[in-house]
C-alpha cells in the first residue's frame, strides 16, 4: 500500500501499544511514531484526516498532527517513539531524549 502525505497508519508498537507511523509531506516516513494511547483514560485515539489531528470522540481530547495535546481533558501529549521501516517491517525504538514538541524531557521515559 502506498501512503500519501500526512497519512497516519496504525500499527503495533513497543510493548504491543498501538502506534501511528507518520508520513511526511514529501511522502517519506517520519523518524518518529506516535503512541495512540490517550493520556486521559488510556483508550486509542483515532486520526482524523479532514481535521489533520487526533480526536478522541468520548471525552473531547484533541492532539495536533504530531500528537501534542491541544485540548483536554487529556493532561499530556501522546508519547513518541523512534520509527523506521526495514524490509517492510516497522521498527520502533524508545524515545528518551527531549520531546521536540514541548522542549521538555519526555513524561513517558520514567
From TrEMBL:
Q: Which Pfam families match?
A: Rieske
Rieske domain location, by residue?
1-92
Task: State where it is primarily located.
Answer: plastid
Question: Per the record's keyword annotation, is Lyase included, yes or no?
Answer: no
Quote the catalytic activity from the record: 2 oxidized [plastocyanin] + a plastoquinol + 2 H(+)(in) = 2 reduced [plastocyanin] + a plastoquinone + 4 H(+)(out)
Q: Which keywords has UniProt assigned to this entry?
A: 2Fe-2S, Disulfide bond, Electron transport, Iron, Iron-sulfur, Membrane, Metal-binding, Transit peptide, Translocase, Transmembrane, Transmembrane helix, Transport
Q: What is its EC number?
A: 7.1.1.6
Query: Domain of life of the organism in this record?
Result: Eukaryota
Query: Its family?
Result: Belongs to the Rieske iron-sulfur protein family.
- Name the UniProt record assigns to this protein: plastoquinol--plastocyanin reductase
- Organism phylogeny: Eukaryota, Viridiplantae, Streptophyta, Embryophyta, Tracheophyta
Amino acid at each position: 500500500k502506498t501512503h500519501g502525505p500526512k497519512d497516519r497508519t496504525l500499527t503495533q508498537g513497543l510493548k504491543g501499544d498501538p502506534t501511528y507511523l507518520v508520513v511526511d509531506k514529501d511522502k517519506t516516513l517520519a523518524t518518529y511514531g506516535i503512541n495512540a494511547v490517550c493520556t486521559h483514560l488510556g483508550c486509542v485515539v483515532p486520526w482524523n484526516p479532514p481535521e489533520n489531528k487526533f480526536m478522541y470522540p468520548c471525552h473531547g481530547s484533541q492532539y495536533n498532527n504530531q500528537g501534542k495535546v491541544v485540548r483536554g481533558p487529556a493532561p499530556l501529549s501522546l508519547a513518541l517513539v523512534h520509527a523506521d521501516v526495514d524490509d517492510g517491517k516497522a521498527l520502533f525504538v524508545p524515545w528518551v531524549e527531549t520531546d521536540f514538541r514541548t522542549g521538555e524531557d519526555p513524561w513517558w521515559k520514567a
